[in-house]
């Protein structure tokens, strides 16, 4: 019994000791659980009350943009997490208000017309609970055109006068100071273009005839040009290169292998020279000498030599050190008809009809006959190709009533122009800015480069030369386009030498360039629409009458 009491006492003491020890030992701190703020997500977007994904076109200058999220926003984070930039990367300011208990931010920027913007919303956007937006988003905005007129209204005839007179300045005021030839483009320094100079020569004939410049001024410029071509400009078997140095007359290579003769460029130059020869028809010594010199330049071209060994085709290029390396036949349908007409018409180096039939027409292979957008196309590639096919050869060749074994050429060019117009109105790629007032696909500058636009190569770029130079074929549609480009887009598209080269309203861009081969057809084809002047002059050449008849053409002009 006594032992039991002792055991109990000892056990109690041990328990008390243990408790005392536990109470005096400091406990380890307890780490509270970490609470991460909940992230949140994008819910909805409206621009001017409409929902259309993340891309909006033709919006006004002061849109209302509502972006909704799954949580209330921290207003302080919006200014740095929501950024609006224009295409050049410049920031755009905006004001903000809030709706739906701050779940929706309402953004109101002040924008410019015909400009592309992006709104970037980053994951730096926070909620009132300090959560972050789960995923960034980008909104694309493109503003529409300013529908107000940029210039005072004038009559249609006054507008045509203005466009012709202003465009002439590229060739007359801006011509190369030494040679008088046309610069390839407004930034090309001493590089002049032979084909574009042919267009410029025809433009100066228009200028004299409409009293934009005097006959004496026009004659003096022609004497400078022809004198340079006769005494300084290099030729190869009588043919000129694509580009020349406007001071020295040396070849300016177009490419590594293209550093010699270019028969198409030569043809476009000769078309202009022969037209001027027929216009400057006075019996005085200066005009008589001019005519004689032009005839000599034409006779010097060895058209038959460009058959490359008597083949039944003409070849485009020849190089003094590369020979026929490019080996490109001039075969239809494209801009090359003028080469065969001039070759067949030559009194010194003519080609027989079989070269035309087999080389150009491909024994009929250039026929098309399909219908596009309700219009039957007699010749050429699918949907017609770029519109310059209907312009370059037909600055001088009159297509009215012109028929041969392969086509009626008025029907061809009219169909080509109508298909191009109908394609742009149908707008299968849904480009903003295409309409019955804004149309025309051809070769032109594009943003960052150059391309031959057409219905089968459509990147959203419209060139004024396409629709305006088609005025003989589509007068109403072309005049509507000219008015739109002048009155509605004139603040961006109209400059010191007429219309700039091209524009894109879908991905806004306006060229600041001028190209001789695009400016020339504008003034020439407007004149052919108005008076037929250049058609009448070129078709009055006795050589052309003989040559075209020999190829099987019939026409009231022949």
From TrEMBL:
Residues 329-542 form the Glycoamylase-like domain. Coiled coil: none annotated. The keyword Signal applies. Residues 55-143 form the SbsA Ig-like domain. It comes from the Bacteria. Residues 1-20 form the signal peptide. It comes from Mucilaginibacter lutimaris. This is Glucoamylase family protein. Keywords: Signal. The keyword Nuclease does not apply. InterPro entries: Glycoamylase-like_cons_dom (IPR019282), SbsA_Ig (IPR032812).
């Amino acid at each position: 019994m006594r032992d039991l009491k002792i055991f109990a006492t000892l056990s109690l003491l041990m328990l008390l000791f243990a408790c005392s020890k536990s109470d005096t030992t400091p406990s380890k701190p307890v780490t509270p659980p970490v609470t991460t703020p909940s992230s949140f997500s994008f819910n909805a977007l409206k621009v001017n009350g409409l929902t259309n994904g993340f891309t909006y076109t033709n919006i006004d200058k002061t849109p209302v943009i509502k972006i909704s999220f799954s949580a209330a926003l921290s207003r302080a984070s919006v200014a740095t997490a929501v950024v609006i930039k224009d295409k050049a990367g410049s920031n755009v300011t905006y004001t903000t208000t809030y709706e739906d208990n701050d779940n929706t931010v309402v953004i109101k920027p002040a924008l410019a017309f015909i400009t592309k913007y992006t709104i970037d919303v980053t994951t730096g956007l926070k909620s009132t609970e300090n959560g972050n937006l789960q995923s960034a988003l980008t909104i694309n905005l493109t503003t529409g055109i300013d529908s107000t007129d940029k210039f005072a209204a004038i009559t249609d005839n006054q507008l045509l006068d203005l466009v012709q007179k202003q465009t002439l300045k590229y060739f007359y005021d801006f011509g190369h100071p030494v040679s008088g030839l046309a610069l390839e483009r407004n930034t090309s320094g001493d590089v002049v273009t032979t084909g574009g100079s042919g267009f410029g020569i025809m433009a100066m004939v228009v200028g004299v005839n409409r009293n934009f410049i005097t006959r004496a001024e026009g004659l003096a410029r022609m004497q400078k040009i022809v004198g340079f071509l006769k005494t300084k400009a290099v030729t190869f078997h009588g043919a000129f290169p694509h580009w020349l140095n406007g001071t020295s007359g040396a070849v300016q290579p177009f490419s590594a292998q293209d550093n010699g003769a270019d028969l198409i460029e030569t043809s476009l130059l000769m078309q202009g020279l022969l037209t001027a020869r027929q216009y400057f028809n006075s019996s005085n010594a200066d005009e008589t000498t001019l005519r004689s010199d032009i005839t000599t330049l034409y006779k010097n071209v060895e058209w038959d030599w460009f058959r490359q060994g008597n083949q039944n085709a003409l070849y485009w290029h020849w190089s003094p050190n590369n020979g026929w390396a490019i080996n490109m036949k001039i075969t239809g349908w494209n801009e090359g008809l003028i080469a065969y007409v001039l070759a067949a018409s030559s009194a010194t180096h003519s080609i027989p009809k079989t070269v035309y039939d087999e080389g150009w027409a491909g024994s009929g292979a250039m026929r098309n006959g399909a219908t596009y957008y309700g219009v039957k196309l007699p010749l050429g590639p699918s949907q017609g190709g770029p519109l310059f096919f209907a312009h370059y050869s037909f600055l001088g060749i009159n297509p009215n009533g012109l028929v041969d074994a392969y086509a009626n050429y008025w029907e061809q060019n009219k169909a080509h122009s109508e298909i191009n117009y109908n394609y742009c109105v149908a707008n299968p790629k849904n480009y903003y800015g295409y309409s019955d007032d804004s149309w025309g696909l051809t070769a032109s500058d594009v943003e960052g480069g150059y391309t031959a636009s057409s219905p089968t190569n459509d990147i959203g770029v419209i060139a004024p030369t396409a629709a305006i130079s088609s005025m003989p074929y589509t007068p109403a549609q072309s005049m509507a386009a000219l008015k739109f480009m002048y009155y509605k887009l004139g603040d961006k598209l109209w400059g010191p030498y007429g219309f700039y080269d091209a524009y894109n309203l879908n991905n806004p861009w306006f060229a600041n360039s001028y190209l001789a081969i695009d400016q020339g057809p504008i003034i020439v084809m407007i004149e052919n629409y108005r008076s037929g002047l250049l058609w009448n002059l070129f078709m009055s050449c006795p050589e052309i009458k003989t040559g075209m008849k020999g190829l099987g053409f019939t026409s009231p002009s022949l």
